[in-house]
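Can't attach files on this board, so I'm pasting raw text. These are the components:
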Amino acid sequence: MIEQTLLTGYGGFNQSQLPGFSARAAFWIENGGVFALPSLRVCAYPLLDMLRYHRFLVAGYWVPEYGSAEDAAQFSVLRAYSPYHHVKPGERYPAVLFITGDGDTRVAPLHARKMAALLQASTGSDRPVLLHYDTKAGHSGGLPASKVIEDLTNEMRFLFWQLGMSPG
Amino acid sequence: MPGRDRIQPRLTELIKIDTVNVPFVRGGRSFFSKREADQDLFVLYVRKGPDAPDEVLVDPHGLSPDHRVSVNFEDVSADGRLLAYGVRNGGEDEVTVRLMDVDSRRDLPDTLPRARYFGVALTADKSAVYYARLAREGPRMFRHAMGADPARDEEVFGEGYGPEKIPHDLPLRGRRGQVRRVGPTGRSRPQ
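---
Top answer:
Structure tokens for the assembled complex are below.
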């Protein structure tokens, strides 16, 4: 039996994700999915170009956490995992949905925009690479409940569609 | 993408519920934010005694037609009579800080301009506001005297700190224990 697993997470700054009620997790589990949350980076409001991130918005404040490509030793470490620098032409990428918006004044939305463009241009598979973009959404939430429902509905439609699940 | 008609109703049931955030008490008054099941945004309330009714302080639903402007508590004075609240546009980190007289519900003329704040603290005598915010050169703490021009607020702490430091609720901690905490991590982190 194949189980559809939704793997989400957060990592960095010594912050762990604590258990709490999540409409996303509740809905997913009700529909037979498995929900897992390790502390890893995910792709809503993401930081993807680790070589140039420190040049945008307040990211200069995160150099003590991640390091800076302007330091030769740190460049090698950042280059080794920077997601944007590991996209390969012709690679058969799975379906991807990036989520960001102009209201993200913390992690510059350019990361998700250019990663979506690069993946669309590079992928050798027929799976979609999509960007959900909102001119007002950002890192601090501030979404009205009606918009939260609309966005989460679209996220779930994407997952159910690509994983061959039917909502019940 | 298929499935909207079967996904959206259940998510609506899960999300459209009455939600009340944990109250805090100042001067015997409880302050809290609440979003009722049929509302889009959190409304700021005060309850002036254990059995008193909930009174609306700030309702953001009228602030923008698409409900993308929201409000949050920044601080309330020790006697529960002066409120500092943030007004946020969309999901931005920056807020504009407004001050309100709790009993008359009137905003004071003092408004702190849109910025990335790390703690806003009203003094016990309500004569001044201490606040920290991020400037390009680093974190800085200021003192705003009521009625003065915020553009000319006095910088009281932070000189010499660069972007390698992020303040943690700096004025609030300063008020409670005269401890000013500045560390390498904080609320400007990518979450």
